[in-house]
Design brief:
- The chain is mostly helical.
- The chain is built from six helices and three strands, in the order αβααααβαβ.
- It has helices spanning about 5-15, 45-50, 55-65, 75-100, 120-135, 150-160, and strands at about 30, 140, 170-175.
- Helix 6 links the parallel strand 2 and strand 3 (about 170-175).
- Helix 3 runs antiparallel to helix 4.
Amino acid sequence: MAPGKSTFMKLLTGELPPQRGTVVRPPKLGVLRQDQFAFDRFRVADTVIMGNHRLWTALEERERLYAKTDMTDADGIAPRRARRHRRRRGRLRGGEQRRHSAPGARHPDGLHGRTMAGLQGGQKVRVLLAQALFAAEALLLDEPTNHLDLDSIHWLREFLVRYEGYAHRHARTTVIS
C-alpha cells in the first residue's frame, strides 16, 4: 500500500477526524479492511452479521438478557424488539441477499459455524467482503483482491459493476488498491 492510503481510508471511515473541512458518509457504510485477523475469535456467520451494526447490537443485547437470572419486565421486552428488527431486516433484505450469492462467493458447507481463525486467507477475505456488503449503502474496499483466487476476483469485478446498494439505491463504491 502506498503512503497515504491508510490515512485516506481512516478519514473516509471516520476513524480519523479531518484537519479541515468535513467528510460526509452514508449511515450504512460497508468497509472491507485489510486486517484479516481482527475477527479470528468469532464465528463466520457472526462476522458477516457484524456488517449490520444495529442488528449485531440487538443480537448481543438479546444474548446478554438471556444470560441474566433476574430478568425484569423491561428486560423481557428487549428480545421481542430484536426479533422484530430481524424480521424487518429479512423482509427488506431477502432479495438483496440472494443477489449477493454468486459462484465466486460460495463457501464450503459448514463454514458458517467455524471460527474465522480456522479459515485460509482467501476464505477470510470473502467473509469480510460479505460483511462489508451486508446492508451497505456505500462500499469502501481496501485492496479487495488481496488473497482472492481468480474466480473470486472475476466474481467481485462483475458484482461491483452490477452493485446497486442496499434497497436498490444508487450505490457508491470506493476501491483503494
